[in-house]
Design brief:
Shape: elongated
CATH superfamily of the largest domain: Response regulator
Number of helices: 8
Number of domains: 2
Strand order of the largest sheet: 2-1-3-6-7
Radius of gyration: 22 Å
Helix content: 40-55%
Largest sheet: 5 strands, parallel
Distance between the termini: 47 Å
CATH topology of the largest domain: Rossmann fold
Structural class: alpha/beta
Number of strands: 14
Strand content: 15-25%
CATH architecture of the largest domain: 3-Layer(aba) Sandwich
Order of helices and strands: EHEHEEEHEHEHEEEEHEHHEE
CATH class of the largest domain: Alpha Beta
Length: 245
């Protein structure tokens, strides 16, 4: 049995980042409103979609921090939404659905769902699941990633992604370009000399400092092509710095 709305008040004041946004994809109005009440009371902002097409459109335009996703939707099902999102994005997704068979649950997890909640649910548990998934995702990201503006650098996988409205675009960088970019990104807005950047990327090289200019020129062009333009700035008399857009 679903607890009454009044229980949502116990979540007020919890330590949740106010900027985080949850997209609730649910076509049943009563359930969507119940979820929205609890999610807002937990300190999140809320958007709602009622169909497959609307969910995909809102995800692309709003870039929420998480989706609560039903399976039975007009225009398809939640797995269609999940499959589309996973082609370009890594947004955390919790399935919230009346479908409780193991085949569907396993299929959802294989496609990329982060958790699976079966209706009827306890809204308090939904909030705890949201918090747990976000903690896990944020913990993983903080250990292995550097984030500056729309630029996301995975230092373990050596993947650089530019995030835009059209999706995540992965940059193909050389090892030297990657090393220079990571060095700049770890201290955004700080101006680094050419010798510092050369030492970070090619510590055993006898190359002249001006070699950095060639690498930076190519790196800049790749950033512009991916949609992360004007992020590398030349600092007269010193070298270069990375700025957040």
């Amino acid at each position: 049995m679903i607890p009454p709305y009044s229980m949502a008040k116990e979540w007020r004041g919890k330590d949740i980042k106010m900027a985080q946004r949850i997209l609730i994809v649910e076509d049943e109005r009563e359930i969507a409103e119940l979820l929205a009440t609890y999610v807002r009371s937990a300190g999140f902002e809320v958007d709602r979609a009622v169909s497959v097409a609307e969910a995909i459109r809102l995800h692309a335009s709003q870039r929420p921090d998480m989706l609560l996703l039903d399976i039975g939707l007009p225009g398809g099902d939640g797995l269609d939404v999940l499959t589309t999102i996973r082609k370009r994005f890594e947004t955390p997704v919790i399935m919230v659905t009346a479908v409780h068979d193991d085949v569907t649950k396993l299929s959802s997890l294989r496609v990329g769902a982060d958790d699976y909640i079966v209706k009827p649910f306890n809204p308090n548990e939904v909030i705890e699941r949201i918090r747990a998934v976000l903690r896990r995702v944020e913990g993983q990201a903080s250990r292995r990633s550097v984030h500056v503006g729309p630029l996301l650098i995975d230092t373990e996988a050596r993947i650089v992604t530019c995030r835009g409205e059209g999706g995540d675009i992965r940059l193909a960088l050389t090892p030297t370009e990657f090393a220079i970019l990571v060095h700049l990104a770890r201290q955004p807005h700080r101006a680094f000399s050419r010798s510092e950047l050369l030492e970070s990327a090619l510590p055993d090289s006898d190359a002249y400092d001006r070699v950095v200019d060639s690498h930076l020129s190519k790196l800049r062009q790749k950033l512009v092509t991916a949609g992360c333009s004007e992020m590398i700035e030349a600092v007269r008399g010193i070298g270069y710095r990375l700025i957040a857009q």
